[in-house]
Write a structure and sequence with these properties.
The chain is mainly α. Helices cover about 75% and strands about 0% of the residues. Helix 1 packs antiparallel against helix 2.
Length: about 60
């Protein structure tokens, strides 16, 4: 049986901040949907955040 991950509270806090950052980037982009430059920046920000998550370097997040 797999062992429970240490620092789950810290990981949960980090992931909550990630979700908040994504929400903020999306909200910024949607609120300026007629401004391509702001929308492109919001999409870039979301991609960067998701790339970090998909990389999955959990040990780095907990430091």
């Amino acid at each position: 049986m797999p062992q429970a991950a240490p620092n789950t509270v810290k990981l949960d806090e980090h992931l909550l901040e990630v979700v908040r950052a994504l929400h903020g980037a999306v909200k910024q982009g949607v609120s300026h949907s007629k401004d391509d430059k702001i929308m492109d920046t919001a999409i870039k920000d979301c991609k960067e955040i998701l790339d970090v998550i998909l990389e999955g370097n959990v040990k780095e997040w907990l430091n």
